[in-house]
Amino acid sequence: MSLDATAQASCFGASQPLFHCTFSDGEKTVDLCLQDDIVLYRFGATDRIPDMLLARQARGISMTPWNGVARVIWEDVTPYNDIYSYILSFAIERNFDD
To answer: Domain segments of the chain: what residues?
Structure first.
C-alpha cells in the first residue's frame, strides 16, 4: 500500500511516509515518516509549521504489527516524548470476495 502525494509532500527530503491522517475537517495533520533509522512525528495545522515535531531513533518507537488473524488488518505505532506517548493506529477490513 502506498500513500498519496499529500503524504509524500508532508515528509522531509528523502523521508519515506509511513502514516498520514487529517482530522478536524482537514485543519490538523499527523504524519509519521522514516529517514534512515530516524522516525519523524509531525503534528499540527495542515500546511503550516507543526505544533510538534519529534525525531526519534527507530529502535525507540513501539510498534504492534498485525498478527495475521481476522478480517481486519491493523497496526499501532507509538512514538514517545518524555512521559507522553502518541499512539497512531490504522485498520482496514479485508475483502474476502476477491
So the answer is: 5-93
Secondary structure E strands in 4-96: 16-23, 28-35, 38-45, 52-57, 62-64, 72-78, 80-81, 84-85, 88-93
For 35, the 3-state DSSP assignment is strand
* Residue the block writes with cell 479485508: 94
The whole-number pLDDT of residue 35 equals 93
What values do phi and psi take at 42, rounded to 5? -125, 130
CA 67 – CA 74 distance, rounded (Å) = 8
Give the pLDDT confidence score for residue 10 in this predicted structure.
Answer: 65
Cβ–Cβ < 8 Å for 46, 26: yes
